[in-house]
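Revision sheet: structure tokens.
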Amino acid sequence: RLACGLAVVEDRLLLGGDNPAPEDVLRGLRSARLLEQVEEPPPVVLDRDGDAARETVALVESGGGRAAGYECDVRDEHAVRTAIAATVEHVGRIAGVVTSAGVFLGPDLGPAHELSVDDFVSVLRVNLVGTFAVIAAALPSLMDGGGSIVTIASTAAIRGHGQGAAYSASK
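Predicted:
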């Protein structure tokens, strides 16, 4: 069984539409199934989409688990710190952090020389800076009694895929 106090789930692809790809739906379901196995303290799910956070919590609860969910855009340091404070209030102490925030913007599908700096930075703001912001905000709680940090990356961290310069750099 897993012991974790905080899970950050924001793994939807941003390809210009609001409909998640089928693999993202499956990934979200797997996240919920994983969270069902978490022992005390209950996991807290942060998602930029508050409805999605609540849906994940409902899936965990329908499997007999307990969880809480908050809307939180990891690009916003204040929102992250507010969500982490709410998490500490909810669970008492964060025992672990799992970050899986990741976006892949449509313009990043092309060659790197055609990608604007703004689009490049947008991806890094979620995938890299957002991950740091969550970990940094949770560290005081983790340092008070220990804990674990797991950052979920991608195979793009090991080997680029020919496109997706921003995504690969962020992983």
